[in-house]
Structure formats: structure tokens, C-alpha cells
Write a structure and sequence with these properties.
Number of domains of chain A: 3
Number of strands of chain A: 4
CATH topology of the largest domain in chain B: MetI-like fold
Number of strands of chain B: 2
CATH superfamily of the largest domain in chain B: MetI-like
Structural class of chain B: mainly alpha
Strand content of chain A: under 5%
Largest interface: A-B, 83 and 81 residues
CATH class of the largest domain in chain B: Mainly Alpha
Number of helices of chain A: 20
Order of helices and strands of chain A: HEHHHHHHHHEEHHEHHHHHHHHH
Helix content of chain A: 55-70%
Number of helices of chain B: 14
Structural class of chain A: mainly alpha
Distance between the termini of chain B: 62 Å
Radius of gyration of chain A: 37 Å
Number of domains of chain B: 2
Radius of gyration of chain B: 28 Å
Largest sheet of chain B: 2 strands, antiparallel
Strand order of the largest sheet of chain B: 1-2
Strand order of the largest sheet of chain A: 1-4
Order of helices and strands of chain B: HHHHEEHHHHHHHHHH
Largest sheet of chain A: 2 strands, antiparallel
CATH architecture of the largest domain in chain B: Orthogonal Bundle
Shape of chain B: extended
Shape of chain A: elongated
Oligomer: heterodimer
Chain lengths: 541, 325
């Protein structure tokens, strides 16, 4: 082979190996980058006045006077928008007018009866009122603007009619005038289109500003408040101002989304300017403020994690991991000690080593099956407990899973204690047991702790083993060891795929998983730090 | 200091007043019992891992026996129709088993070359200092919990794939394979690096002295002599991928089918682990479906156990070879 070719091969190979490592770094950034950047917004974000209102209602946080003051300020703008929309709505949906007319007519009839008016006068008065009523109804139902104005003008001629003046029927004229004013710059043929578009705007406004103060309180907590976050509010504003429109550009291509200004729907009407008003007074109507929502880590969440934090999940994860460690720590250390101190290389030891390796290689879902079959269905009923998934079963399952990790780490730690320590202790007359407990174990402790931390991080992240043995997606904070618990790992799964509400609040999804990942990375960083320290110390000797 | 003073001092510090060198028979027996009973107790505790393995096998197999005795096991292994809740129920796990191997093999196609190259880079190309920076990257990749990878697959990778390649669904075999290969990489790298860097210096230097380039040294000398360890690395990576649950459950689409044509990675598949995880929550305890899921578990257990023993064999033979050299 030519030398230059060999040279090229060598260089290419070196570059490829370097690239593969760079790829690893890229993968790490690609996996963690979006998670952390989005997850962090669960805690650090710009909150709106709705958020402060919610926090005050649910957790009694912040001063109520200040919040009321802010709400009053925001309501100035909101009320203006609402009043404009309400008056415009009357032109679209005349059922309000129709109802009012009926009401007035009935009231008029009752008044006549209670005034003891009888005979021809009664029928005469009724006839006039009925005439006006039917004209008005015709006007409300009509789509012909000129015709409507003619009808209303015709009604107005009755204004001085003595049979009407001074009675409730005067309300007819007010209604007629109001309606005339509304439809003045109103394209009646577009009524349907207006109604549709305005309905969308109103829905979006409810999402942005929350239900109107005079409306009844919705049953779901998530419906009671508007956009609690500035980024969410901006998205809603964008949806209010711009309408999504799907266009088929060519027959085979998928549809393409374009944006059309929504204000075009209302061109020439009286609410045309509220879109500019909403945009110009956006900040004043929601009052954004930078917030650190540290209570995210202790708060319970409302249904579907729409509001609130991951407090119960963190608590559940801690309970499970600590319990599992309590089971596995003594077992692991003793087993490791035995493997290092008391063994001869015989068949029994080979079997023990093989089973530790087997245990380390068993898929995590098998631990789940085992936990279900053994702890939940066999062991708990055997001791008279309830045969259902619970924290105890889950933590014992996790303990079995962590056993090989713990044994291997402790074994390595105990093995790395210099032989001279033991020899010195034995030379001073201490027995083997005493040497181990008072000399070897303390010296190996940092290494064993590293093992504990690594097993903790392994246990905290596992989901499959606790699927059938004690994890649940909803539920209150567990009261006993025989209850199920929420955990960060199962919660991350559930919020990512299980729940449709989760998709509405991406910061909550990412917040949950990032809490888990950061917890585990911190534990691992701690272990790496410990290990480096031990390494330095052992090197020093 | 005379003898009496010394005696009193010893008495006051140790709390014992006499210490004869000859043990009484009772003391002797006590010491013997303490030593041997203690040892036996320690041995029993050490055997807890053996007990755990035994219990896992026993209970998983026990729960699968009703299914194995009532159903035709050859049909279970060869039929593609998995309709456990239908009337009559059909338990054909072929497509599920194939799905497991499918995503595992595809993920290894990516993970093995990258993993071995990264291992070579760490052991033969860069200095110790840079290695210290890269090691934590691999450790963090290994530490990220599988549910977080699944989360990444569903919410980040899946929309991206759908967007870039126009797949009908973003949760498909390709997605699951990509994420599985990321998860298998740390295992492959660390085991392969161990075995590559434990190949003796004299082999490398001998090769360089003969005028070989690094490329030639690695491919003709180092990898052949470290092959047992590398095979073990690949098998361990395979075990990681085949036993992984959350990622495949979330990312593979869970359609029980064999992709047709076989190279079409954009189709959804379903794996053994995902079937167990997804269906166990909805079955009635003691139903045929429940037992069938345990049967899948037994298959999985036997599979990983075999792979484990094979990898063990290769690791031991790698150690032996190095011991001889």
C-alpha cells in the first residue's frame, strides 16, 4: 500500500473517532438542552396577574390588597373590551332583543290587567302593542338593512301615541333606537361570519383573561383563571390577532398554514378597533412580572398538573428511594464484606458472583413482574397485609434491583482499602471482626457512600419496576406505607403520554422531568466528586 | 512504675481484672460458636442475591405455568395475532418478539461502531486530561433515567422526525432505535474501553516499531487481541437495549406488527417489554392474558440470562488471555 494512502487512512480514522466522541457530547446537549431550557421555565417565568390571583386563592400567598389593586387596574382595560364586544354581540345575536320585546309585551299586558282596563280599550291598546312587537320582531329577523330602518322609523311614529306613552311599552322605542344604532355600520349579510369569528375571540379572551367576574365560577380549577404565564398570554394574543388559515397550495402537497389578520373579519364595524386596543394595552391588561416560583417543588398540583408543582412526586420519590436504601444498605455492605474478607475461590462463590451479575442484567420490567407476583400477591397477604400495590412493595422491589449496584460498589470500596491498614490492626492483636468494623469499614466508608449515592440515583429514576407495585398517577399524599404514591419517574411518563391536559402546559411536563434529571445528575456529580477525593487520598498514601 | 500500679491501670482502662492466656472450655466454645455462627450468618446474608435470583425465576415462571399448560406454546411463538382481549383471545407473540429484536438490532447498528470508535478515542488517541473531561459526559448519559429518554423521544425527537422526514407518525421503530442506541452507548463504550486499554503496551509499541500507523495498529493488533472484551461490550449493550422498557413503550408506537417491507423503519412496532408494561395494568389478575404476559416475561428472562452468561464467558476469556500475555 502506498504510504500516502496509509497516512490518509490513519488521519481519517483519527478524525472519525474524534467525531464519534463529539457526537456523544452533541447527543448529551440535544437530550438535556431542550429539557433544561424548557423545564426551568416551570420555576423562573413571567407571571400575569391571573397567576397571583390563583396563588392567593389556592395557597393564600401574596397580599390580597395588592392583588385586588392590580386586578382593578387590569379590569379597566378588560371591561372596555367586554363592553364593546357585548354591544356588538347584540347586533349579531338578536335573541337578546327578542326576549326583551317579549318581556316588555308581557309586562304591558299585565299592567293593563292590573289597571283594570277592559273592553275595547284593552283590545285597542293590545293591538297597537302587538303591531309594534311584530314589526320589531320582523326587524330583528330581517337581513335587509334598508327594510329594518324603514320598519324602525315606522315604529317610531307611534312614539307620541297616547295609548303607549307613560307605559312600559316605551321600552320598545329604546330597543328600536339601540338596534338601529348598532346595525348602522354592520353588514347584516355577514352576520354568520361575525358570530363565528367573535365566538372564537371570546373563547380566546376567556383563556387569556379568565371568565368574566359576573359569570358563575367554573367547576374545574383550571377554567377559573386566565393565562397565568406571560408566554402563554403572548400565544393567546397572537391567536386573537391572527387567524390560522390552512391553504392547499398544490394538490399533492400537505396543507400549509398561513396567518390572516383577524381584524379583517370585522372590517368597518365598531369593534374593529378593539383588536388594536387589546394589542396596545396588552401589558396593562395582564400586568406581567418576573417570578421565581420556588414553591413548585413543594406544591401539590391540580388535576392534570395544570397548576401547581411536583411536591407529592418529590416526596414519593424520596420515600421510595430512602426505604429501598434502608433495605439494601445492610445487605449490600455485609455481602460485599463477606465476598472480600471471607472467601476462598470455590464453586459457592462462583454461584454467588454469577447471581449478582444475573441480577444486574435482569430487565427492569421483570423486576416489576417479580414485585407484583412476589411482594404484592404473595408476601403481603402471607403476613396478613392487603394484597394491593403499595409503597412497601415498590421499595422492596427497588431494593432487589439496587442490590447488585450496592454490592459491587461496596466490594470495590472495601477492596481498595490498603492491605497495610488491616495488617497493622491484626498485628496489634485485634481480631478479624474487630479489624473489619473498626479499621476497614471506616476507611472504606467514602467508597461505600459513593455506592449508596449511585444506587439512589439508579433507584430514583426507575419506572418499570414500580409500575405495578406502587406508583400511581393521581392521588393524595400517602398516609401509610400501604398506600400508593406518586413519583417523579412515573409522573414524567404520565404527563408526557398519559394526559391530554399535559400538552397544554409544556412547562409542567418539562419541569417534572427536569426535576428528576437534575436530582439524578446532582447525585451522580456528588458521587464523582467523592470518588475523585478518595482517589486523591489513596494516591497520597 | 511497679507491677501493681500497671495492673491497676490496665484494670481501670479495660474494665477487666484478670486475663488468663488459657481460655476456659466455656469461653472456647463461645468463641468457636461466635466465629462460625457469625460466619454462617454473613454467608446467608451474602446469599440474598442468590435467593433474589432464585425467587425471580421461581415466581415469574410460576405465574406463567397456567398459560403454558393451557395453550399451544408453538402457536404462541409462531403466530402473529396478538388479540388477548378478543373473543376468542389470540396469543401469538411472534410480532412482539420480532419487534424486540428489530429495534435492538437497529440500535446496535448505530451504537456499536460509534461506541467502539469512542472507546478507541478514549484509550488510544487523547491524553489523560481530555479523557477526564469526556468520562463525565458518558457517566451522565448512563445516569439519565430511561423515562427521561422516553420523554425526549416522545416530545422532542418524535415531532422532529415527523417534521423532517414526513413520517406518518413520529413514534416508530426508528425513533425507538435511535434512543435505545443512545442508551446502549455508555455501556458499550465503558466495557470496550476497559478491554482495549488493558491490551498491553508492548503490543502497541511492537506494532508502532514495525512502522504501522495508528489505524493499522488498532485494527490489526489491538482490536483482534481485545475482541473478547468488545464482544462482551456489544452483548451487554444488547441486553441494555432489549430489556429497556420505558423508551420503547413511549417511542415505538406499540403497534403489534412486523414491519413490511422489513427495512421500513418508519412503521410502529411493539416489543416484549412494552407489551408487559402496557397491558399488565389493564388485565385481571389470574386471567389468561395475565398469565400470557408472565410468559413473555419468562422469555425475556431466559433471553437476558443467556446473553448474560455468554457475555460472562467472553469477559472471563478476555481476562484469561490478558493474564497469559
Amino acid at each position: 500500500m502506498k504510504y500516502s494512502l496509509r497516512e490518509t487512512c490513519d488521519k481519517t480514522f483519527t478524525v472519525m473517532t474524534a467525531l464519534s466522541v463529539i457526537l456523544l457530547v452533541v447527543i448529551l446537549v440535544a437530550v438535556l438542552g431542550p429539557m433544561i431550557s424548557k423545564g426551568i421555565t416551570a420555576v423562573f417565568f413571567k407571571s400575569t396577574v391571573e397567576f397571583r390571583r390563583m396563588q392567593n386563592d389556592l395557597h393564600d400567598r401574596g397580599s390580597i390588597e395588592k392583588i385586588d389593586e392590580q386586578i382593578a387596574k387590569a379590569n379597566i382595560h378588560r371591561d372596555y373590551i367586554y363592553s364593546k364586544i357585548d354591544s356588538f354581540k347584540m347586533g349579531i345575536d338578536t335573541s337578546f332583543f327578542k326576549q326583551k320585546v317579549k318581556q316588555i309585551y308581557r309586562q304591558f299586558g299585565n299592567d293593563l290587567k292590573s289597571n283594570n282596563i277592559k273592553g275595547t280599550e284593552l283590545s285597542d291598546r293590545r293591538k297597537v302593542a302587538r303591531q309594534i312587537r311584530s314589526d320589531l320582531e320582523k326587524a330583528f329577523a330581517s337581513l335587509d338593512k334598508a327594510g329594518i330602518i324603514e320598519l324602525i322609523d315606522g315604529i317610531d311614529q307611534h312614539k307620541t301615541d297616547h295609548r303607549i306613552t307613560g307605559t312600559v311599552a316605551m321600552g320598545f322605542y329604546d330597543l328600536a333606537d339601540q338596534y338601529k344604532a348598532i346595525i348602522k355600520d354592520f353588514d347584516l349579510s355577514k352576520r354568520q361570519q361575525y358570530a363565528e369569528s367573535l365566538g372564537q375571540v371570546e373563547d380566546l379572551l376567556i383563556k387569556l383573561y379568565g371568565p368574566r367576574p359576573e359569570d358563575p365560577m367554573p367547576a374545574l380549577i383550571m377554567d377559573r383563571y386566565g393565562a397565568t404565564r406571560y408566554d402563554l398570554a403572548c400565544q393567546l394574543l397572537d391567536k386573537i390577532l391572527w387567524k390560522e388559515h390552512w391553504v392547499q397550495q398544490s394538490p399533492d402537497q400537505p396543507m400549509v398554514s398561513t396567518k390572516l389578520p383577524r381584524v379583517a373579519d370585522f372590517e368597518g364595524t365598531e369593534i374593529e378597533d378593539i383588536f388594536f386596543y387589546i394589542e396596545d394595552n396588552f401589558q396593562q391588561s395582564i400586568i406581567p412580572k418576573a417570578t421565581i416560583y420556588w414553591q413548585y417543588f413543594i406544591d401539590d398540583s391540580t388535576s392534570g398538573h395544570y397548576f401547581g408543582g411536583v411536591g407529592p412526586e418529590i416526596l414519593g420519590t424520596l420515600i421510595l428511594t430512602v426505604l429501598a436504601m434502608a433495605f439494601v444498605f445492610p445487605l449490600g455492605v455485609v455481602a460485599a464484606a463477606y465476598l472480600v474478607e471471607c472467601t476462598t475461590d470455590n464453586i459457592v462463590m462462583k454461584i454467588i458472583r454469577l447471581s449478582i451479575n444475573t441480577l444486574a442484567g435482569v430487565p427492569s420490567i421483570i423486576f416489576g413482574l417479580f414485585g407484583l407476583a412476589f411482594f404484592v400477591l404473595f408476601l403481603l397477604p402471607f403476613f396478613g397485609g392487603p394484597s394491593k400495590p403499595c409503597i412497601l412493595a415498590a421499595s422492596m422491589t427497588l431494593a432487589v434491583l439496587a442490590l447488585p449496584v450496592m454490592i459491587r460498589a461496596s466490594e470495590e470500596a472495601i477492596r481498595s482499602v490498603p492491605q497495610s491498614y488491616k495488617e497493622a490492626s491484626l498485628g496489634l492483636g485485634a481480631g478479624r471482626f474487630r479489624t473489619f468494623v473498626q479499621v476497614t469499614l471506616p476507611a472504606a466508608m467514602p467508597g461505600i457512600l459513593t455506592g449508596v449515592i449511585l444506587s439512589l440515583s439508579r433507584v430514583a429514576g426507575e419506572t418499570a419496576p414500580i409500575l405495578f407495585t406502587g406508583a400511581c398517577a393521581f392521588g393524595s399524599i400517602p398516609k401509610s406505607l400501604f398506600a400508593q404514591t406518586r413519583t417523579l419517574s412515573y409522573g414524567s411518563y404520565d404527563i408526557a403520554v398519559g394526559d391530554k391536559i399535559g400538552m397544554l402546559v409544556p412547562h409542567k411536563q418539562y419541569g417534572m422531568v427536569v426535576t428528576l434529571v437534575l436530582l439524578i445528575i446532582c447525585l451522580n456529580a456528588l458521587a464523582i466528586f467523592f470518588r475523585a477525593k478518595i482517589f486523591r487520598r489513596l494516591k497520597g498514601h | 512504675m511497679d507491677d501493681t500500679a500497671l495492673y491497676n491501670e490496665i484494670k481501670s482502662t479495660t474494665g477487666r481484672n484478670d486475663r488468663s492466656l488459657v481460655l476456659t472450655p466455656f469461653e472456647d466454645l463461645k468463641g468457636f460458636l461466635a466465629c462460625h455462627l457469625g460466619r454462617a450468618l454473613l454467608f446467608l446474608i451474602t446469599c440474598s442475591s442468590v435467593l433474589a435470583v432464585f425467587l425471580i425465576f421461581y415466581f415469574v415462571i410460576r405465574e406463567s405455568i397456567p398459560f403454558i399448560t393451557h395453550n399451544d406454546i408453538s402457536q404462541f411463538l409462531t403466530s402473529q395475532h396478538w388479540y388477548p382481549e378478543a373473543e376468542p383471545a389470540k396469543f401469538g407473540a411472534l410480532s412482539i418478539i420480532v419487534g424486540s429484536f428489530y429495534v435492538t438490532i437497529v440500535s446496535l447498528l448505530f451504537a456499536v461502531p460509534v461506541g467502539i470508535m469512542a472507546a478507541v478515542f478514549l484509550s488510544d488517541v487523547v491524553s489523560f486530561k481530555i479523557r477526564e473531561f469526556i468520562k463525565p459526559v458518558i457517566e451522565i448519559l448512563a445516569a439519565i433515567p430511561s423515562v427521561a429518554y422516553g420523554f425526549f423521544a416522545v416530545l422532542v425527537l418524535s415531532p422532529w422526525l415527523q417534521d423532517k422526514f414526513g413520517f406518518a407518525t413520529g413514534t416508530n421503530a426508528l425513533n425507538a432505535s435511535i434512543v435505545l442506541s443512545i442508551m446502549a452507548l455508555p455501556t458499550i463504550i465503558s466495557v470496550a474501553e476497559d478491554s482495549i486499554s488493558s491490551v498491553g503496551r508492548e503490543l502497541r509499541e511492537g506494532s508502532y516499531a514495525l512502522g504501522a500507523t495508528r489505524f493499522e495498529t488498532i485494527f490489526k493488533v489491538i482490536i483482534p487481541s481485545a475482541h473478547s472484551g468488545i464482544i462482551a461490550a456489544v452483548i451487554l449493550g444488547m441486553m441494555r437495549a432489549i430489556g429497556e422498557t420505558m423508551v420503547v413503550w413511549m417511542a415505538s408506537g406499540n403497534a403489534s406488527q412486523i414491519p413490511t417491507p422489513w427495512w421500513d423503519l418508519s412503521q410502529s412496532v411493539r416489543t416484549m417489554t412494552a407489551s408487559i408494561a402496557g397491558e399488565m395494568g389493564e388485565t385481571v389478575k389470574g386471567s389468561e392474558h395475565y398469565y400470557s404476559l408472565f410468559t413473555i416475561g419468562v422469555l425475556l428472562l431466559i433471553l437476558t440470562f443467556t446473553l448474560n452468561i455468554v457475555s460472562e464467558y467472553f469477559l472471563i476469556s478476555a481476562k484469561k488471555k490478558l493474564g497469559k500475555a
